[in-house]
Amino acid sequence: MKILTCIVCPVGCKIKIDENGNILGARCDRGLSFVKRELLSPERILTTTIRVDRGIVKVVPVKSTKSIPKERLREIVKKVSTISVKAPIRRGDILYSDEEVSLVATRSVEEVKDV
Ligand code: SF4
Fold it and tell me: Quick check: CB of 10 below 6 Å from ligand 1?
């Protein structure tokens, strides 16, 4: 038997998949869809940070514009850890993208003013 915690809503149902493939414990159809996706090709929204040059803060939080395969998360975080972006940054700016993934800034970062 396998037990998954549904992450679709805050209820967090514990959903059991028995030896015969029966799915038990989901309170709604969204939970059933979650389990099927999770068993076949699990995906997550990626949230991380990117270094900022000349910003009033050193890093900017970013998130993926769509769910991406779980097996790519580590690779993308590693790639993103090697880059930096120049301030100013506006919330919603695409700061990283490849053929499958785009990461957008989730806050704005102003540029440091020279005094
Ligand atoms: S099964 Fe339905 S109610 Fe339960 S956590 Fe998932 S989405 Fe929420």
Answer: no
For residue 35 and ligand 1, the question of a CB distance below 6 A is answered with no
Mutate which of 4, 9, 38 for ligand 1 pocket (most atoms within 8 A of beta carbon): 9
Kindly tell me the burial class for residue 14, based on how many C-beta atoms sit within 10 Å of its own C-beta (0-12, 13-18, 19 or more): exposed
Which tens digit of pLDDT belongs to each residue from 42-98? 999 999 999 999 999 999 999 999 999 999 999 999 999 999 999 999 999 999 999
Question: Is the pTM higher than 0.90?
Answer: no
Domain residue extents for the chain: 2-40, 47-105
- What is 47-105's CATH topology? CPE0013-like fold (3.10.530)
